[in-house]
Amino acid sequence: MTGARNFLGIPVQGDITPGATRVEQKPIEELQPILQAVLDDPTIVEFGWRQYTPYFNDGDPCEFNAHGTWVRTTDDADADEDELEMWGHRSLGDVKGGEWVDDPDQPGRRKRVGAKYEGPDESRYHRCKALEKAIEGGAFEVVLLEAFGDHAEVTVCRDGIEVEFYSHD
Description:
Radius of gyration: 19 Å
Largest sheet: 4 strands, antiparallel
Distance between the termini: 38 Å
Strand content: 25-35%
Number of strands: 10
């Protein structure tokens, strides 16, 4: 690396290899209204996600993340968990069609434009998608890791949060 660099006023020389680039972290106060918007919906029974650091990642660095956000509504009493994940939720509806383009606000990510919502309640769908983005987007990883630990399956209900050890490969 070229140019003058220092650490606490002490000059640093040599090549510095950058580490993983992480999403800028946000405080818990910014997660609260997103979580509350979903909890305030009377048709949402519970929601949750899994968070862990993989043991092996095909040679890539093993980094903590949260994923698999799911939502159970009053219409989902008999649904399997895979029917409740946000990518194919059976009762929240979905956004169909459109075109995937590079997202100028988030380099390296893509977004869908021109898509149409199909389902029973578009605003509920978007509140749940905002929750999924907050949980899985990386901006609250420090908050989630501190609150619920590594290798955890988290279930949130109005009257409490349950954390169970999550076993994964």
